[in-house]
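Q: What would this chain look like folded?
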Amino acid sequence: CVLCGRTDDCTEKYGEKRTYVEYNLTVHYYCLLMSSGIWQRGEEDEGIDGFLIKDIRKEVNRAAKLKCNICKKKGASIGCVAPKCKRSYHFPCGLQRECIFQFMEDFRSYCWEHKPVQQFTDKEPRGASQCTICLDLVEHLPMYTVLKSPCCKNAWFHRECLQYQALSAGIFFFRCTICNNMDKFQKEMLRMGIHIPERDASWELEENAYQDLLHCYQHCDVKRCLCKKGRDYNEPDSKWEIKRCQYCGSRGTHLACSSMKSWEQNWECMECRSIFAKSGKYRKRKKHSLATSEKTNGTNCLLEEPPPKSPRQSSGSPRNFLLQSPKILCQNNLSPCSHLELPASNRVTMSLSPVMSNRIWSLTQKCLREQRREVRNILKELKVQVKTKTTRLNINAENIWSSALKGFRQRNFSPTNSIEVSFSNCKSRSKTNTSAASKHNFFQLLMHHLQNSSLFEGSSGKNLSLDFQAAKENLYFEAGKMIAVSLVHGGPSPGFFSKTLFDCLVYGPENVKPTLEDVADVDVAQTIKTIKYANSLSSLQSTLQDCCEFLAAAECLRPVTALCDKNMLVNDILTYHVIKRTILPLESFRQGLKTLGVLEKIQMHPDAFSSILCHKPERLSAEIICDLFTIHSSSDVNKVGGADFWMSYLQDVESGESVVTLEDILLFVTGSCYIPSIGFDPEPTIKFLHIKYPIGNRLLNCLELPKTKTYQQFKNKMELTIRNTLRVEME
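A: My prediction, written as structure tokens:
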């Protein structure tokens, strides 16, 4: 550069470096803008952005006589504008010495002694908070590298982060990241030396940036697509034409897959249908659709869920419920009994007996299953982002947190890469211990560690704790990221979030009212209880006097003149202790959950995701395992009783009449002792073959079972194989 003499080419620091061969001239854009003895005397298309070439030459000659007060070399073209200050310097030297360059009006420059500073009052909170751009901690100190927002009291930024943001956003989109104020924010940032280019945002200038918005959705989303050419096949004016949802347009179906005779028929996806159902507007539409189905010979839409099992107990075998599994029924062309509901009179007069309590519990579990099924489909949509490129994590099971943290922070880790886990402390590897099994085990250990870590507090339903060291090391962000990755990559759900924490993630902390159960600190809980249950004004005031230091720290110290004031006081204390006190960890945790778009889906489907984040997974039962596996059977299986033997064995295992557990069976086949929130890929299957002993193929999630003549032979072979296989793996 003819002005600063440096060869550096860093657009963010020095502006664009331009070379003009015809003038034998190279110059940094910022060096040209800030030089004290030159002005734009030409039009924009003359010279270099209005700076005439002869003026630039004159400025170079003028600067050649001036010595830089920083590097002591000639060519210092920039001078401090403060009265009586004669300091001169190069632009890069000024940056190094923390001078301020104002990219506005007369493009003034101030040396390190006369530069403008932001005013810090004694009431300003000391300590550190998150920079809302990079999410790293920023100290609340009057430093050149730290800037505070003029419009938001608690918004602090790194200067470097703000400069990058300004260059990307441009003058039309650069604003406060907290309150979106533009005028006041830009004025202060220009005063403090942030360059805001007069151009549109970088994302607006990208060619064809919004091209994807012009694409129509072309994919069949029904549960069982009938098209042999795939879900993306679309043939107009035929039964394989794809019809989009009439409400959202983001789901589709082949006409044949939803039993639609013509393209003119309306179709709505399950998500839109559920919204109508909740609003009460879908009932009339449902009657109309039933009438239509009668005209189409009763063909069921394959998008519908299987009909519910009958709640009645038959007088036959106690294992009859297993025979009603939707997967078995579909393959054997059977139909389950229709759902029988009690008459209205019975429902009104029935008291809450143990039977009714069991029925309510059963309905609750059924509702949770439906919600988890919805989550499974959502997570499968998110998994589309995962590529075949693999990232290997070397994990030490005895130090799961440190090794996981190291793996997630390694340079080549990306949430969109497939994850392969290797346990470094395993002395030997079993051939059956596949990478999928290691990954399942890793995520299970990781979620268990998070649940019991210092990042969370509480007994069952946990909230975020306040750990300053963890916040400084950005561990809340990593925890949120790990949970998001676990959900999409086939790990278990956390299942330990409190309703308050979940609501803060979905609706924002400002819209949530915590309860006394959210307070994990016994002393704090006792103080709040004492205030809440004070039965007289004098006892209330006495209690407040005893805990005045605590109330002052919680910003709740105030005069109380009536007993009824205690209710608002208790709410304020709870809000401070549970939410306001942990607002920074919460924001960091939310940012981590945004990984792979998980938080966005949680906010779009709160009811569904609460089933996996706030509720522990349902305990495995014979019914769940039976529904999980699809039986691929030949015509002679029923002759030898293979399917019946399998169902009877599950019932024996559930009732404790076996040496193995249902978890052992699942582990033997899939390598996982739990059902992932996203489900298994591929889905577990069963094959009956002419083999001697059962085989668990974990690559295909396939259980190959022997055909035996008696049930006792089947049971003996199952227990011998599963028990010995898992024992060898443990050893």
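The chain is about 40% helix and 10% strand.
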